[in-house]
Amino acid sequence: MQWFKRKVYSKFWEDYIAHFKYSQDQDLRAIRFVVFDTETTGLSTKNDRILSIGCVGIQNLRIKISDQLESYVTQDLFDSSTVKIHGLLKEGSLNKITEAEALQNFLGYIENAVLVAHHAAFDVGMINAGLKRMGLPKLKNKVLDTGVLFQKTKLDLSKPHFSLDELANRFNIPLHDRHTASGDAFITSLLFLKLVSELNKNNTIQLKDLLRNIKRIGLL
């Protein structure tokens, strides 16, 4: 009989999953959130590639400026038509690393933090696609979407989706460095804190409340 053998992964992946040994704290002030954004060659998680990753940490519901990560990825795929959006040339003076190096750095940085992004499914999908190319499983972190959190506030139910620009303007957040990964991560972090403050007005919320399915927002 051939015994089942556990697949062996790289040490950095084993170090990453070791952070999930214990259950997540529910007190929002005790949780480390990492707000992140990816700039990409396009909108296909299958065919496009990550150009840059920007992250900013939040602890005690405050942005921690010293807790940041920014990576620029060498461009194996290049679409000149998207440069006007993200401003990243194939060459240039920026220090770029491989996709594998960028993802390894990302995992080492986020650890077991709760991830936050605007339209998070896309950014998480891009990260997971990169991990798959490395022969690794998907991210294990809990994920929050600021678009969904805005729906939970019930401030505007006129449509199901609002862009980052629309919500930043609503909450008077300056659009500084828009369409750079780090700039968008910082804008999203400000938006996240404003949404949490709004949701906390009438109830003391916990992580499970933010994660709860949108169809059950009446419980907030």
From TrEMBL:
It comes from the Bacteria. InterPro entries: DnaQ, Ribonucl_H, RNaseH-like_sf, RNaseH_sf. Residues 32-201 form the Exonuclease domain. Keywords: Exonuclease, Hydrolase, Nuclease. GO terms for molecular function: exonuclease activity. NCBIfam families: dnaq (TIGR00573). This is 3'-5' exonuclease. It comes from Winogradskyella pelagia.
